[in-house]
Amino acid sequence: MSAPTLLDTALKLAADGLPPLPLRAGKVPFGNCPDCTGNACGGRPNMKTPGPCACPGVCHAWAAATIDPHVLTSPAWATAWRRAAAVAYHPGGAGVTVVDLDDAEAVTWARTTLPPTLTVPTTRGEHWIYRGVMRSVNAVRPGVDLKSLMAYARWLGPGTGVMAPLPDSVRALAVKEPSPARRAPQSLTAPLKGHGGECRHRTPAYLERGIAMAEQRISEARSAVHATVYRTFLAVLSTHGRCGCLSDTHVNRLFTAAQAKGETPRHCTDAWTNALTTLGL
């Protein structure tokens, strides 16, 4: 699709109450502006309402989503639309929850477990969309992510069926039973390989500070631990994942911090894998 067509789609979504945002190649949002790189601004993604964020351009991923046509068509967004590969939207800002079913097995599970609702086909599975909001959680079961507050989903068309109210069976997927005991750290089965990117880490202190900040962010989480772990992994990989600087030792430190908050080794591995996939690593 050409950029004007994507913008037209975004404007139609905004008129229908779905806050859109552009995605670049790889189904990922545009990077933060220079003033917000590395969350230097204090972390606008912690907002619990749809955007736009305070930045004039497309910044802070889902928080940039807006229904304001003046923002969507502003000169500050023009470059993003020219480079965009797809349109996404903030489900929570639209008052809905997307059950993202990533493969055929997940779709079969949903058809036998969840009440029917508006369904949108995806490349590998389906989006089941319910009326109502909740916290977003990845990997609630194999091939199933929940996207609502503080998340984004690709716009793939209007779908078929009638949107049903968000059922308790979906809300229950986000409720994690407390871990009976602290788990041993989970190691990666293979080291993270570099992807030929230029190394930005001129001193070891740069990487060490990033890992320490990530550990602290996870350790200080008081709620939405699943989402915090995933977002932290995503942030670490977006900064350090392409140059080969990350070692198993660094990753194990993050896994240990997550497991200290009650996360299981499996969830850590799933969250890491999902972050790698999101970033195309």
In terms of topology, how is this protein built?
Blueprint: H1 3-15, E1 20-24, E2 28-29, H2 69-72, H3 75-83, E3 86-89, H4 91-94, E4 96-101, H5 104-113, E5 118-121, E6 126-131, E7 137-141, E8 144-147, E9 153-154, E10 164-165, H6 168-171, H7 204-219, H8 225-240, H9 248-260, H10 265-279
Parallel strand pairs: 6-10
Antiparallel strand pairs: 1-2, 1-3, 3-9, 4-6, 4-8, 5-6, 7-8
Helix pairs in contact: 7-8, 7-9, 8-10
Low-confidence stretches: 177-191, 193-197
Question: Mean of residue pLDDT?
Answer: 82
- Identify the overall geometry: globular
Fraction in beta strands: 5-15%
- Which structural category fits the helices and strands? alpha+beta
Main sheet? 6 strands, mixed
What is the tally of helical segments? Answer: 10
Radius of gyration: 19 Å
Number of strands: 10
**Helical proportion, percent range:** 25-40%
CA-CA gap between termini:
24 Å
Q: Which H/E pattern describes the elements?
A: HEEHHEHEHEEEEEEHHHHH
In short:
With 281 residues, this protein is α+β, with helices and mostly antiparallel strands. The protein has helices at residues 3-15, 69-72, 75-83, 91-94, 104-113, 168-171, 204-219, 225-240, 248-260, 265-279; strands spanning 20-24, 28-29, 86-89, 96-101, 118-121, 126-131, 137-141, 144-147, 153-154, 164-165. Helix 7 (204-219) packs antiparallel against helix 8, helix 7 packs parallel to helix 9 (248-260) and helix 8 (225-240) packs across helix 10 (265-279).
